[in-house]
Write a structure and sequence with these properties.
alpha+beta; 1 helix; three-stranded antiparallel sheet
């Protein structure tokens, strides 16, 4: 299973999880480590931000499609 690192957001980075009971995640690209709670917090923050932006975009007036006259 592959997931982007929540610290560097590199989708190609190798993220591993320690199996020593700590369940710490480590990124091979940026060498940061983080917990499951860190992942949950980062995903919630991203979802909140995108939800607000999408709500604004949905409420923004849409451009009228151009029509071309045929002769």
């Amino acid at each position: 299973m592959k997931a982007a690192c929540i610290k560097c957001w590199n989708p190609d980075a190798l993220v591993t999880m320690d199996l020593d009971g700590s369940a710490l995640f480590r990124c091979s690209e940026c060498e940061e480590e983080f917990t499951r709670d860190d992942v949950r917090g980062a995903l919630e923050a991203v979802q909140r931000g995108w939800s607000r932006l999408l709500a604004w975009a949905d409420a923004y007036p849409q451009a009228e499609p151009e029509t071309t006259a045929t002769t």
